[in-house]
Specification:
The protein is an alpha+beta fold. The chain has 13 helices and 27 strands. The strands form 6 sheets. A 5-stranded mixed sheet has the order 1-7-3-4-2, covered by helices on one side. Strands 9-8-12-10-11 form a 5-stranded mixed sheet, covered by helices on one side. Residues 26-41 have a biased composition (Polar residues).
Length: 601
């Protein structure tokens, strides 16, 4: 907004002065304005004709080819700048009018006067290039710079009034018609604000088509080429020198697309780019922001369509061969330097150490580090550490366990289904029993599927061990050193399952007796003990019979953290005999006492 003070000698006649000596009011009814001859609406109300934001142009053949090689969608560089026209029109309407803007037919001048004369006028420039100010008369403003408007009107009003102040600025601006031709999405004539530029005109028409160039755009005026616009100058370098203002009857002509290549893989912006003559590999990489932070900086693969009948892929050494020229249809692939696993001897290991160590946390260790070196990095064991019960979990082992565990469950489910299908039913009681078995086995399978392997590796330790074995660590390993427990858990088919205080010298049989011993339905021949280190000792592996003088478990010393589990005799319950296999599945995969309690419940 411009402000000025008029100090003319005085009005040209007495009628210009208010009889009471107060300010003269120039009413809007005195304003003789004209509207544009075509009766068009203001440019900020022009309806949008652009594409919907959710609408995407179909991939070109080369874009589709590059996308198939990349495994993800690869678009032409600059295509995302062609935004919906509605947003562009709104932004143009809200732009500040530049100082060098030339006023013309159809523009609206907002004029405010105060002091000896008061007025608030909206005046439209007529076909003669004039505005008419009440009691002042016509003023020629066409071709006047916006920066000079305030001074011009002050001089003109000052010929009639004195002791006033004036503010003049532009309101609604005229619309202009321009044309878009060539390889464009929607060629034709368009109306835009007089502030519109080449970029505005391109977006309004939907931008170049798949066959149109983003780098060969001509602005033609009166049959002459005013400027050539390269969208990459704006997109890559931020240079707007070619984005000049449009004038009425300008023509935007879009030429055919030039040579194209695709850059995929570990680049900052995978895209199809349009080449200029002489562009090199380095130029192409610069268009997409260069190689990504994880890219292999030493090499780049080039697949040349021109050699499709021969060797199609060559590898360039970077940066030595970065100045090599690229050709139409080439596909440049940058490699990722971190996705391929390095040899263990070269990998630094990220290890988590928790529990009874001086400084629990995550540690990055040298490639050849062992478990004890990991513990030493965490400050060593505390006085409460129970080294025998160390839980050592490895991610690579967990993945293998998951595959094997799922396969074991599928085999178990197949056995259940086969036995149910072959079981003979002679009466309603048999049918009811089969139905109950099917329901029970389904619940069992669901519970087993809910339990997942942890990747625990059983360490070969003695109960009194104070050191871990010299096993090299891997990336993602987890060590948990528990405090020394004072109880032994007894669960399953016993009279009173729970955790019991361990007395020195107690055997597994002693702990079982504290729980009341096995029930009548217990399968005493399948009793097993899960040690705190994850190992399992069972009656089947130590001899026949249950915990008595014929079994090693009768005299087996109980250790802190043991879990004794007594399975049920399956042929005495609704479960079929083959369901015994689930106990083996559980302890073979080191799922622990928590899983046993889950299944028991």
């Amino acid at each position: 907004m411009f402000l000025a003070t008029g100090k003319a000698a005085g009005p040209t006649d007495d009628s210009a002065m208010a009889p009471s000596g107060g300010p003269i009011r120039l009413n809007s009814t005195d304003t003789r304005t004209t509207v544009s001859g075509n009766g068009s609406r203001p440019t900020d109300d022009v309806p949008a004709t652009g594409i919907d934001a959710a609408t995407k142009a179909a991939l070109s053949e080369f874009e589709a080819y590059a996308s198939s090689l990349a495994g993800t969608e690869v678009r032409r560089l600059g295509a995302d700048l062609m935004l919906p026209a509605r947003g562009v029109l709104a932004s143009e309407a809200n732009r500040q009018v530049p100082l060098d803007y030339l006023i013309g037919y159809g523009d609206e001048v907002q004029l405010t006067l105060w002091g000896s004369v008061e007025a608030d006028l909206r005046l439209t420039v007529d076909r003669a290039g004039r505005i008419v100010i009440p009691r002042v008369g016509p003023v020629l403003v066409a071709g006047v710079r916006h920066a000079d408007l305030n001074e011009l009107l002050t001089r003109r009003v000052g010929q009639v009034f004195k002791n006033f102040q004036l503010s003049a600025t532009l309101g609604r601006l005229r619309s202009i018609r321009y044309y878009v031709t060539g390889f464009v999405t929607r060629p034709g004539a368009y109306n835009v604000s007089s502030l519109a530029t080449v970029m505005t005109g391109l977006v309004q028409a939907g931008g170049p088509s798949a066959a149109g160039s983003l780098r060969n755009i001509e602005l033609r005026r009166n049959g002459q080429i005013v400027t050539r616009f390269d969208l990459y100058d704006l997109l890559v370098s931020g240079d707007k020198k070619g984005d000049v203002p449009l004038q009425a009857d300008d023509v935007l002509h879009i030429g055919p697309v030039g040579p194209q290549i695709a850059l995929i893989g570990s680049v900052n912006k995978p895209a199809v780019v349009e080449l200029k003559p002489g562009d090199t590999v380095n130029d192409a990489l610069a268009y997409v922001g260069g190689l990504s932070a994880v890219a292999d900086l030493s090499r780049l693969a080039v697949e040349r369509l021109s050699e499709r009948n021969d060797r199609r892929v060559v590898v360039l050494d970077l940066p030595r061969e970065g100045a090599q020229k690229v050709a139409n249809g080439d596909v440049l692939r940058a490699f990722n330097s971190v996705t391929a696993a390095l040899p263990q001897a070269k990998q630094y290991k990220n290890v988590r150490i928790e529990g009874e160590v001086a400084r629990p946390g995550d540690y990055v260790l040298p490639p050849t580090s062992t478990l004890m070196e990991a513990v030493q990095a965490a400050g060593g064991f505390t006085t409460q550490a129970y080294v025998f019960g160390t839980e050592f979990s490895r991610e690579s082992v967990r993945k293998v366990q998951e595959v094997q565990y799922d396969r074991a469950l599928r085999d178990l489910e197949t056995d259940f289904t086969r036995n149910n299908a072959t079981k003979k039913v002679s009466n309603s009681d048999d049918a009811q029993a089969v139905t109950q078995n099917q329901a029970s086995t389904s619940r069992l399978i669901e519970r087993l599927r809910a339990i997942r392997p942890t990747g625990r590796i059983v360490l070969d330790l003695k109960a009194e061990s104070a050191q871990l074995p010299s096993l090299p660590v891997e990336d993602g390993d987890r060590l948990y050193i528990p405090p020394r427990p004072k109880t032994v858990g007894v669960f399953g088919s016993v009279f009173n399952g729970g955790s019991y205080l361990l007395r020195d010298g107690s055997s597994v049989d002693d702990m079982l007796q504290l729980a009341g011993g096995p029930t009548r339905g217990a399968d005493t021949g399948s009793i097993f003990v899960i040690r705190a280190n994850g190992s399992v000792v069972s009656s089947r592996s130590t001899g026949s019979g249950w915990i008595n003088f014929g079994s090693r478990l009768a005299t087996l010393q109980a250790l802190p953290g043991d879990t004794v589990f007594v399975p049920e005799e399956m042929n005495k319950t609704t479960f079929m005999q083959e369901a015994k296999d689930w106990t083996q599945i559980l302890y073979q995969f080191g799922l622990g006492a928590a899983a046993l309690k889950t299944i028991k419940n």
